[in-house]
Amino acid sequence: MTSLGLALLVVGAVVAVAEAHYPSHGIAGSVGVLVMTVGIVLAITGLGAGVLVALLAGGALAGAGVAVLGASLKRGTAVRHLRVRTGAEGIIGHIGTVRSWTDTSGSVAVDGALWKARRSPSAEEDEDHELHSGDTVVVEHLNGLTLSVRPAEEWELF
Q1: Which of 42, 63, 88, 92 is most buried, taking the most CB atoms under 10 A from its CB?
Q2: pTM (2 decimals)?
Q3: How far apart, in whole angstroms, are the C-alpha atoms of residue 125 and residue 3?
């Protein structure tokens, strides 16, 4: 009984740690905590202790495991709501300066880099505001290495 309990403790710990590396939204972690709880109850009863002591130890382990798993899941779901800061999605909404422009395309400096740019489809309806060198623009979309931009409004400059 003791060896089975120790084996279940090890397997449960491995499954619970696997949750950290391969997130399964708490499923693997819950199974790991459950297996460890059964393992500790079997190991303690196999060593000759009373069933009450084994159940109390199992309850303590289960409580601690559920608390750690709950905190981990809470933090993991909070991270999902953060704004993307890097990659293609991270540049959307950034302010840039037009370096050169002809009709519907040109080059724009954004975050210290020079990008090819074109007017975004929503900005093409606003034909009365043509872009010139030095104008401030807002990135609306990224397609490959070409930005879609629109003229920045006053409130976006602060």
Answers
A1: 42
A2: 0.54
A3: 74
